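Re: [ENG-882] Designed sequences occasionally contain unexpected residues at chain ends

Forwarding the minimal case from QA. Structure tokens:
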């Protein structure tokens, strides 16, 4: 393990401890230790840490890691440094399905919303793939970006039309629109956590091939790699990671965009080094955003999607300026 990776692991561990401490009532590190290793069934702090804070910390860890890796795969697949998982339409597709479900009744169970969001993300990405990608066809990644942008705009338009018609549905959709890792019961999200963990582990055999694909499709074909098959695997990984993230936490922006850039700057261009680091940095960044959302304007909470936008927008503008300077 490289020194930078070790530093990222240490930073993530600190972020986890601070996340377990933070809230309207701050707990001490000693209270966190007591809650984790020798909890009391009657102690309020122990119950708060082990139930509410532990669950939202686990959700933030899983969502951040999944989005960080999904963004890195998407940038490799499209060879576009400004690509993010949203280009496949997963966010827009998930939102459209959840909005449709919300308009069918006054109450939308959490498990149904999560399942619908995951299904919507998968169906949207499948539609983008069917339109854009063909075996042995040139310019597949470019068509993927264009098809994703077009279908995302279409899905958002339908969602907004339904929300304008159904004001009650708009109130129910605030969680998905702003993003949040709070009030997510562990019994509801643990299947999505397992999906994310399984996909992160399954990415490991593809790291060398993604190194070759990053050099271009012609190079990958010359190396004997089935480019279309690798592209399909990449899309499936992005869909599962981003779909699970949206289903757990709603619309979280910028994590999948900026984290891969930070990881490459720290670990170089080898996917075997920077993609695992992207998982660590994504988890840490989302935890930091969640802690800030809880403590910025107490006792209220700022939506975590707003915090990631506030943290990510300056970095995004710096990336755009850097790219412009390189090509200018």
């Amino acid at each position: 393990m490289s020194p930078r990776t070790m530093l990222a692991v240490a930073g993530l561990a600190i972020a986890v401890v601070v996340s377990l401490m933070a809230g309207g009532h701050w707990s001490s590190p000693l209270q966190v230790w007591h809650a984790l290793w020798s909890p009391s069934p009657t102690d309020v702090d122990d119950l708060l840490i082990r139930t509410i804070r532990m669950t939202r910390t686990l959700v933030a860890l899983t969502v951040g890691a999944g989005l960080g890796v999904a963004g890195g795969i998407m940038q490799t697949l499209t060879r576009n440094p400004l690509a993010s998982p949203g280009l496949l339409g997963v966010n827009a597709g998930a939102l459209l399905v959840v909005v449709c479900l919300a308009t069918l009744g006054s109450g939308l169970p959490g498990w149904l919303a999560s399942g619908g969001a995951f299904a919507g993300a998968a169906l949207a990405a499948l539609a983008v793939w069917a339109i854009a990608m063909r075996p042995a066809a040139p310019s597949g990644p470019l068509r993927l970006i264009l098809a994703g942008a077009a279908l995302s705009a279409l899905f958002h338009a339908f969602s907004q039309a339904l929300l304008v018609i159904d004001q009650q549905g708009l109130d129910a959709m605030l969680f998905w629109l702003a993003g949040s890792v709070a009030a997510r019961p562990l019994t509801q999200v643990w299947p999505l956590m397992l999906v994310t963990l399984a996909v992160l582990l399954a990415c490991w055999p593809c790291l060398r091939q993604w190194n070759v694909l990053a050099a271009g499709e012609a190079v990958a074909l010359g190396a004997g790699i089935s480019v279309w098959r690798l592209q399909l695997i990449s899309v499936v990984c992005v869909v599962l990671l981003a779909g699970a993230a949206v289903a757990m936490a709603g619309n979280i922006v910028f994590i999948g965009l900026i984290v891969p850039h930070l990881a490459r700057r720290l670990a170089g261009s080898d996917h075997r080094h920077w993609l695992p680091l992207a998982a660590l940095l994504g988890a840490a960044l989302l935890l930091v955003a969640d802690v800030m959302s809880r403590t910025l304007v107490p006792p209220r909470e700022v939506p975590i999607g707003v915090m990631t936008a506030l943290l990510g927008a300056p970095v995004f503008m710096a990336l755009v300026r850097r790219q412009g300077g390189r090509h200018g």
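QA comment: On inspection the terminal residues look reasonable. The radius of gyration is 20 Å. Proposing we downgrade this to a documentation issue.
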